[in-house]
Design brief:
The complex is a heterodimer of chains A (about 300) and B (about 300). Chain A is mainly alpha-helical and about 300 residues long. Chain A is about 80% helix and about 0% strand. Classes of the chains: A mainly alpha (about 300), B mainly alpha (about 300).
Chain lengths: ~300, ~300
């Protein structure tokens, strides 16, 4: 029975390969997935001395919530308040610009646009999303800054406003894409019911489709917000980088991310300054997790419930 | 009548937002093209910088970027694609584990890129790198425990991991379930089904995802600030533990730290243009593959 034998050996071999590949895939996937957890562990590991090492704690904690960020001086001060203010200022400016543009453009694309134009809008937005942030920062530094200065008469050419406007350009594509997805996911039957009752196209868009897709749009806003807070290169290049506690939009600002970006390369390994920068990184990481979780749960729970009609 | 005006206003406002986006893209592209083409030449692309980076070209930066992107793909793409295969073929979409993993992946995608840089420094450079040195290097010699090409590539690979996983998984899920069932019915094992049926049918989708991930990594600068990019190097990197020059980092350094901005501005514009061409070519390839894919499935 040579043929039977041959068959059974090949199928045994196939099964061995199957088993082997399963094991390989499992191992590789586990490594990739454990990296996700390692990120948290290792940023926190370098930050923990701020709380758990007596000497570092003594140096850092008393000034941590002050308004002076002077990590490189004889008596270093690690006040993160100006950094928080700078982050908040630039991010809010970016959101005030990006949310209306992103959402309105998404409404147009999803509800009003002819199909050929839709096919044009999407690649253009992808193009905008494809600009590396260092390029946007460069554009902000040399073109936008001058333009905005002549508009506002700001004292410092580089300020929170310039950075905020530039950052809005990175948030617009995210907000647009996710909002557009949410609007397009609204079941056609709902819109047809609205038309059937005699509503016009724009009434349906604004009173029916938009409110139905609201959870998705909210999620888009949250994710855009998260993306803006994490933006580094643009603020490094266009915000002026001065750690001052001022709420004026046309003063220079320094953000949490820019602080890491500007100072980490020169810091001494294991120094309190080093630990504080990692602490800021851990905070940014946690913040991203929280925002993402809110967006995810909100969109899943609310949107799904709405579509099921309960 | 009143209603019509209101309607016109609403529709007009949304159309205006779209036009604004078009305008922004057009202005940036126009400005960079106009400024960038002036200095762009064969010499610029093939010469190293001279005279304290106020003259000459950007060849080392182009070289560094390309090598980095290739290394990043070699390190990262297999992990991403295999993880996606695992998620799509070996777990069911509803399982608690798969949901938890997907949640972790989407969270990873929202972590700021500078935090990846911190992780690269803390984990790759100071944990793995310095660990390797402590184990193998002769006394106090630093080979791996410093910022280097390989650590920057590993950091970027991790940064692009979620993009790869999500898009490859979608490509795999687009392969009709019947194909798998038919293959299993013929007695094929799971791996035979994946290798001979699922992967060939998903190859364009996987390619699109891979290119998108690569183009995301190609333009990213923040994680390189302290994992391996160098201000200026007299020679090209020829080993994994060398530092390297990078187009985006070069642009950042020229734009923020050069003594005479006026003098280097044309160089910066051309560098920007080269960087844009590099990332757009990658993106465009992905878009073209996707369009071909769509027409293929609609046939």
């Amino acid at each position: 029975m040579p043929i039977m034998q041959l068959q059974s050996t090949t199928s045994a071999r196939a099964e061995r390969i199957d088993f082997l590949m399963r094991a390989i895939i499992l191992v590789v996937a586990t490594i990739a997935l454990s990296m996700i957890f390692l990120i948290f562990i290792f940023t926190f590991k370098e930050a923990k001395d701020v709380f758990f090492d007596a000497e570092t704690r003594h140096e850092v904690l008393p000034t941590l919530f002050s308004t002076n960020w002077q990590p490189i001086s004889d008596s270093p001060k690690y006040g993160i308040i100006p950094l928080l203010i700078g982050t908040l200022k630039t991010t809010l400016i970016a959101m005030v610009i990006a949310v209306p543009i992103g959402v309105l453009a998404a409404i147009y694309t999803s509800c009003f646009s002819p199909i050929w134009f839709k096919e044009l809008i999407k690649p253009v937005v992808e193009l905008l999303a494809g600009f590396p942030s260092v390029v946007i920062g460069f554009f902000a530094l040399f073109v936008l800054a001058g333009f905005l200065q002549s508009l506002t008469g700001a004292e410092s050419r580089l300020n929170a406003l310039v950075a905020g406007v530039a950052m809005s350009l990175t948030a617009i594509p995210i907000i647009f894409t996710i909002s557009e997805d949410a609007l397009s996911a609204v079941p056609k039957s709902i819109q047809e019911a609205s038309y059937g009752l005699g509503a016009t196209k724009w009434e349906t868009a604004f009173y029916i489709t938009f409110p139905t897709a609201y959870p998705g749009i909210f999620a888009a806003t949250i994710l855009g917000f998260g993306r803006t807070i994490g933006e580094t290169l643009i603020v490094l290049m266009a915000s002026g980088n001065a750690a001052i506690s001022s709420w004026s939009l046309i003063d220079s600002a320094r953000t949490l991310t820019a602080t890491i970006g500007a100072e980490m390369a020169e810091v001494v390994f294991g120094d309190p300054h080093y630990n504080v920068l990692f602490l800021i990184g851990t905070a940014l990481f946690l913040f991203a997790l929280i925002l993402n979780s809110i967006a995810e749960f909100y969109i899943k729970e609310r949107l799904m419930k709405k579509f099921r009609g309960s | 009548m009143n209603k019509q005006i209101l309607g016109g206003f609403y529709t007009g406002a949304t159309a205006f937002a779209v036009i604004l986006i078009f305008l922004i893209v057009a202005i940036i592209l126009f400005d960079i093209l106009r400024g960038g083409l002036a200095k762009l030449s064969w010499e610029f692309l093939t010469q190293p910088p001279r005279e304290g980076m106020t003259e000459g070209g950007i060849f080392p930066a182009i070289y560094g970027t390309v090598v980095l992107v290739i290394l990043m793909s070699i390190v990262g793409l297999p992990f991403g694609i295999i993880t996606a295969i695992y998620l799509s073929e070996y777990t069911t979409a509803q399982s608690r584990f798969a949901r938890a993993v997907r949640f972790a992946v989407s969270n990873l995608a929202s972590v700021p890129s500078i935090v990846f840089g911190l992780f690269g420094l803390g984990f790759f450079v100071q944990f793995i790198g310095a660990g390797l040195d402590a184990a193998f290097a002769l006394e106090d010699e630093v080979i791996w425990g410093k910022p280097a090409l390989i650590w920057a590539a590993a950091t970027l690979a991790l940064l692009t991991l979620p993009v790869t996983i999500v898009s490859v998984e979608e490509a795999l899920r687009n392969v009709p379930r019947e194909y798998r069932e038919a293959s299993h019915a013929l007695g094929a094992t799971k791996w035979q089904t994946i290798w001979h049926t699922v992967l060939p049918n998903a190859v364009s989708g996987i390619l699109t995802g891979a290119i998108l991930a690569v183009s995301r990594g190609a333009g990213e600068v923040a994680p390189l600030l302290f994992t391996g990019a160098a201000f200026f190097l007299p020679k090209l990197p020829n080993s994994l533990d060398d530092q390297f020059m990078h187009l985006g980092y070069h642009l950042y350094v020229l734009a923020t730290q050069s003594v005479n901005v006026e003098l280097t501005l044309p160089l910066q514009y051309s560098t920007t243009l080269v960087l844009l061409v590099l990332t757009f070519t990658l993106n465009l390839t992905a878009i073209l593959i996707r369009y071909r894919l769509r027409s293929q499935f609609s046939l």
